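Q: What does the assembled structure look like for these inputs?
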Amino acid sequence: MLRFRSLSTRLTVQFALLFAGAMLAVSLALSSLIANNASQQVERQLQSSGAVYERLWQLRSGKLRDGADLLARDFGFRAAVATRDEATMRSALDNARARLNVGSAFIVALDGRVEGSADPSIQREGPGLWNAFDGGRLAGVAVVGGRVRQLAAAPVMAPNLIGWVVFAADLDQREMTSLERLSAIPLHADVLVRRGSVWQSVAGTSDPRRADAIVLTKPLPSLGEQRDGSVLMLAYPKRLALASARRLQWALALMTLLGLSLVAFATWRAAGSITRPLARLDEAAGRLARGEHAELKVEGEDELSRLAAGFNDMVVKIEERERRIAHLAFNDVLTGLPNRTMFHEHLGLRLRAGKPVALHCLDLDQFKNVNDTMGHPAGDALLVAVGERIAAICAGQFVARLGGDEFVVVQDIGENERGGADRLAEALIRGISEPIQLDGQMIVPSTSIGIALAPTDGSNAGNLLKSADLALYRAKEAGRGTFAFFEESLNERAQQRRQMENDLRIALERGEFELFYQPLFDLEKDRIGSFEALLRWNHPRRGLVSPVEFIPIAEETGLIVPLGAWALRQACHEATRWPDHVRVAVNVSSVQFHRPGLQEIIVQALGQSGLAPERLEIEITESIFLEGSEATLKLLHTLRTLGIRIALDDFGTGYSSLSYLQSFPFDKLKIDRSFIQNLLTRPGASAVVRAITDLAHALGMETTAEGVEERGQLAELRNQGCSSVQGFLFSKPMQAAEIIRLLDTAPARSASAA
Amino acid sequence: MLSSASAQAAPLLIRVVDPAGHPVRDAVVSVLPASGARPMRITQRYQVSQRGLQFHPFVSVVPAGAEVSFPNFDPTKHHVYSFSQARSFELKLFARDQSRTVRFDRPGVVALGCNIHDRMSAFIAVAASNWTAVTGPDGTIRFADLPGGPARLSVWHPYLRAPGNQVDQALGPNVPAVKVMVRLRPPPMHAMADY
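A:
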């Protein structure tokens, strides 16, 4: 089966073949009909010519026989024959021959002799003729005297049969020609005589036995030997016979060819008109598949046109859908700003182009508070509003939301144009901090911005974003509503932090931590009232690492939770070796408070060590209230109910400490060392301490002064009514082993100190 | 004719049939003894008349030297002729009740015709032997007084298919009966009524 790439070709070929087949079949049928018809016509004409000839033959035969009869009945002639009067007989025969205009006339006697003929060669045929005549065959063809002749005989009765009068006419070309003239068609007539097994032409005008002739044969009566025969042959050359038919066939063939050409052309045209729109559709579909825009011209109202219109409609809808999908893929659903993916694309593109850009990384300050206190819908509304403000301020620059409250701006700047980035950051901080109405509440948003410059601070999008993040981190450290540029030192610090994170994890596993204890001296009872447990890290390379360095990192990474738990257990365990009146104080980070399980950790530490809850003091800072909630207060109350004491550390450095004092009944306030350091030098410092101790007394709380290093300070603090002191004046933090020794001597030392 | 039979003579019965076994009439049967023929004696007036445009009888036997008259009983004239070698003659156009007489001297068969009426034909056998006769409808001839000894038998018929319309055969001595089978041609038109 043929395969076609083109529908048009296939239609053309198929229909052309179909029509051609039909036309050829019809043409062949017609052609053979014409040929048959012509043959039949020729045969009919031959038949009629044959019939005419037969009639002619009989006419002449009759004429000959009539002549013979007439002569045979002549009395004188009969007398001459009967009496063998040869001279009379011969003259009578000559007379009749001349009258009838025949070739020869003679007598065949009853004994087979031929009489009355001048030609002696006829004698030989006598017995053969006698046989025929005696058998009743009186007319026919016979070879007489070496020539083929038409014979007719009549019996001579005198009164009984005494012989036959025979008249013979030559069969020659003249005879045949006259016969041919009678025919309507140009036929060839001939008489064939069989001699032995060979048929011999005796009178033909040409050889009619050619293969390309239509031949009709008619047997003629034969008077010769029994096995001899003779036929009349009428032949018509096929070429002539079918000449008119050939002309018709040629005309038919020509018409067929013409018809085929017309059919092929018409089919080609029709197929083209059907398939051209399909080809255009095919081509347009190809373009659509390649992602190009494709549109078809719509002509008319037929199926193909409707198909084209439908295709156009489909293209529009596909493109619309593609745009929507692309938008969804590259844009933030909430604000409609480009998303992180698109940001990376864009920034990558800018960086690859080698254009200097400033990447601003924005983070809203205190956004979590808004979500927590006002709910997510309000938070979302704030994000939308902020997004709009950023986009308005940074018109012409690329703005994206990376997620949460994190936005970025990619600013095109000139070479080393740090000032442009400066100005934009300031404009952003100013613009975003416009007050905004949310859920009926007025809110003043604020943002911190970290800026990284390309190509200096990062050659690719990932690096640059990391740099901007570090700068943002630093800006946040520096205080809210500020911006900071990236510096290489930030990167180093970040690396150190990462290093420390790793070390911390390992340290926890290896047990590199140790608790030091700093005593708190009870001024009223004049003895050591408790020890504050302080974490120390025995770093294998760096030696002892200060908590100031690693605690913030432990808090950020969450390591503070297991570390704090360990500290609690260790401190409780250690404290059991101390006298019953000596308590142990453990610092608990706000991170620990906000993670679940703190209560269980504390209870476990007490249970495992067997330490009385009253001997454990938890030190917290105000920061636990910053993200504080009901849960925090509830936990604090529970701990107090258990008998555990709660102390507020670093009092006086925070924000609005007094309100906390009302919200929770602390057991102790620890006055920050900053008040103690300047106690003797700064005017009014004593008054502040006095105010705190008075307040604490009023609320039923104890007070501890931190960082006491001088005797004067101690005296002043005693004056101001402080319950206990802590500091180098009395003791530095010490290892657990030292405490046992100290406790033995403590009363003496305390006395001296007092 | 049969009265001349001698004492030592023997009778002979001859029967002429066609191949189908049917008797053949009008056959002239002649026996010629080896001892010699005895001439036939003229015992009567012989006659071949014309009546109803036919000769009567069709075949007759006459002794040599006999005179035969040809009376015409038809209202038309006849022209009786014969070209036979035994006796060639012509009796031109004689009318009714006219009669001519012709004398036949030589033995042989004389064919008679009428030049006016082709259908008319008759034969007169001029006998050389006393033992010559024409078969009747039963096709048989009985010779009572044939001399003993071998003889020759010949049968002639107008339509017999044989040279001279005649077949001969030898006859042994004292054969009491002989059957001769002959083959006949279809008769010509003028004799069809009888055959």
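The radius of gyration of chain A is 71 Å.
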